[in-house]
Amino acid sequence: MAKKDKTAHVSETPATQLLRAHKVAFTEHPYDYLEHGGTEESARQLGLDEHVVVKTLVMQDQDAKPLIVLMHGDCKVSTKNLARQIGAKSVEPCKPEVANRHSGYLVGGTSPFGTRKQMPVFIEESILQLPRIAINGGRRGFLVQLDPQVCVQLLGARPVQCALAE
Question: 3-state DSSP call for residue 149?
């Protein structure tokens, strides 16, 4: 596979279109997508701390209602703590094909911005204390860096405390 020019412009995604429409300042960071590489791989390739790389997780409650959780790349979600905080009986990750259907993105390229279906968004509270985050831009191998407050302003993301160290 040919090396990508890291300064090259990446074609628009629903996520970048939404960000541009709302005049959000962001930078584009393409990298070579690696199946099952996760945030560890993207952080390594882009020279970022994995803690500032935020993963977008499509989950569902006991009634199969979808929701999005934004979590530090080096943490996992305590579904018990999350369920308790959002008033659900239980929360679990969606199967990949279900997540793809809800978000309109392929798993590994899911952005919380520009999703096909409107879903409640929950963000790990400590993410909001970071000056900038890297989050998926709507395609595998493509992160955007922006102010985490954008998640609250554009998505109505509600802070939760459900992080567990990996």
Answer: helix
Copy the structure tokens of residue 44.
């390594």
Helical ranges in the chain per DSSP H: 14-21, 38-46, 79-86, 96-103, 149-155
Q: How many CB atoms within 10 Å of residue 111? A: 25
**Whose CA is closest to 119, among 155, 80, 166?**
155
pLDDT the model gives residue 1: 39
pTM recorded for the entire structure: 0.93
What is d(CA 77, CA 69) in angstroms, rounded to the nearest whole number? 8
Rounded mean pLDDT of 1-20? Answer: 71
What confidence tier does 4 reach under pLDDT thresholds 50, 70, 90? Answer: very low
Torsion sign over Cα 34, 97, 150, 86: negative
Whether the CB-CB separation of 110 and 56 falls below 8 Å is answered with: yes
Site of tokens 């809800």: 102
**pLDDT for position 6:** 44
